[in-house]
Amino acid sequence: MGATGTTPETGGPAHHLPPAPRKRRAPGDGTAGATRTDAMRETHVTTLILGAGAAGMMCAAHAGAGVLVIDHARSPGEKIRISGGGRCNFTNLHTAPGNFLSENPHFCKSALARYTPWDFLDLVGRHAIPWHEKTLGQLFCDRSAKDIIALLRAEMSGADLWLETTPEDVAHDGTGFRVRLDRAGQKVIVTARNLVLATGGKSIPKMGATGLAYQIAAQFGHRITETRPALVPLTFDEAQKSVFAALAGTAVDSRIACNGTAFDEAMLFTHRGLSGPAVLQISSYWREGDALSVRLCPGVDLFDHLRARRAEAGAKSVATILAEVLPKKLAQHLTGDWGVAGNMADQSDAALRALADRLEGWHLTPTSSEGYRTAEVTLGGVATDAISSRSMQSHLVPGLFIIGEALDVTGWLGGYNFQWAWSSGVAAGRAIVTG
Ligand SMILES: Cc1cc2nc3c(=O)[nH]c(=O)nc-3n(C[C@H](O)[C@H](O)[C@H](O)COP(=O)(O)OP(=O)(O)OC[C@H]3O[C@@H](n4cnc5c(N)ncnc54)[C@H](O)[C@@H]3O)c2cc1C
Predict the structure, then answer these.
(1) 278 near 263, Cβ under 8 Å?
(2) Do 251 and 280 touch, CB atoms closer than 8 A?
(3) Which atom of ligand 1 is nearest to the CA of 208?
(4) How many CB atoms lie within 10 A of CB 259?
């Protein structure tokens, strides 16, 4: 089966890149470890890595000799470049298996334990890249995400990198892989003992995400779990949207809970719905029809606070007092919407209790999400039950490795997804070297 036929989920056509000029040569066209049997027509390598993203490049840095990395983009690591607002939140010091979603929550443990955030930080230090901790253990580059791309390119300098190259057909003959590539308009056959799928998930198709790894994995008998956009803003019906539009740009600390999981972070009102870290986080747990339970001012006992303020400032309006702990626009909206009028002195204990309860359990029901267009990651992917958690190698096809976001391992917001890319890439690279 051709690897660029139809996608298993949509049945629609997979991506087709516009043909690049025929004479253009991709950069990084070395021959380290590669044997060419017919100039530009058939090449043998030990390891062919599909995808020069975070996981693919990290794997290339650890996979020993004879590695070829291909990518259909013009530059490697495009998602790294735009990540973390251009500063790349490259790991999280508090990374633990509990920060990942997967059908098998134990799967990520081995790789994360054998290549930790401290290992990556050590690498960052060796490349003299300045960094800082922003919040909650999230580490960012001081200068630019390009520093991380440069680090990876330097680390994988022993490997060949072919850009503007697309896999067209993937086959396994019992001993090795045979992959037909379109390299800037030229057809090339690459044979390899090992094939690493590192083409990521489906988020942000504009940046070249294709879901190709799912298709190739399925071709070799791997199950693909349900995939859906995650770390994504949530959208609402028209009535709710117009309310949020009036609050657009307002951010507020909140605890958002859904399906037994809660996040304490900022929530942001937008013209289309809700965004901000707390909403992106909870989007991985939310399903159509579910309500979010939003607690405003987490950490404050609102009933006690309101009673204390009634005693101290009874002549002030409820909206004014709420604006001491909430953004003014939001305080005005909520008191208006909930019909809470008058001064603090007018409020009975029961009225203050009812108000506090509403502020601590504001129920909002999104209708949908912004989808893959803006999702930071894809939830789900290649099921881990037929993958070795130690090496990322397929139990079904020897020499087939699957790493990074393509697998059914999805991290929280905050540097966890890159740490998974590093850890799973290193696990596969080391396994390839040790055979
Ligand atoms: C806007 C944004 C910001 C983010 N910020 C952060 C952050 O700060 N911290 C964090 O931890 N995570 C962040 N993430 C998530 C993180 O980028 C991904 O989890 C991570 O890049 C996954 O690594 P990967 O190597 O598995 O896949 P990718 O990095 O997506 O790499 C896949 C590669 O495969 C190539 N490819 C895909 N299809 C094909 C094909 N058919 N043929 C050839 N090549 C193909 C792509 O061009 C790409 O280079 C962010 C994501 C987005 C979208």
Answers:
(1) yes
(2) no
(3) 47
(4) 12
Asked if residue 324 belongs to a domain, the reply is yes
- Cα of 204 vs centre of ligand 1, distance in Å, is 9
Of 435, 431, 426, give the one whose Cα is nearest residue 152.
Answer: 426
Angle at 329 between CA 324 and CA 334, to 5 degrees: 85
Q: Is residue 68 part of a domain?
A: yes
When the pLDDT of each residue in the chain is averaged and rounded to a whole number, the result is: 91
Strands 362-364 and 292-296: antiparallel
One-letter amino acid identity for 379? L
- 415 within ligand 1 shell (Cβ under 6 A): yes
pLDDT number for residue 20 = 35
CA distance 251 to 255: 13
HSE of 91, CA atoms in CB hemisphere, 13 A: 22
**Are both 131 and 148 inside the same structural domain?**
yes
Joined tokens for residue 236: 């609402």
71 lines ligand 1 (CB under 6 A): yes
Whole-model pTM: value is 0.91
Ligand 1: which of 83, 419, 423 to mutate, most ligand atoms within 8 Å of CB? 83
Would you give the distance in Å from CA 95 to the centre of its chain?
A: 15
Six token digits for residue 215: 């298709």
Q: Residue 358: which domain range?
A: 234-369
Q: Name which of 19-23, 62-66, 244-248 the model is least confident about.
A: 19-23
List pLDDT tens digits, range 279-326: 999 999 999 999 999 999 998 999 999 999 999 999 999 999 999 999
- Classify 113 as helix, strand or coil: helix
Regarding whether 323 and 269 lie in a shared domain, the answer is: yes
Paired with 172 in beta bridges are 177
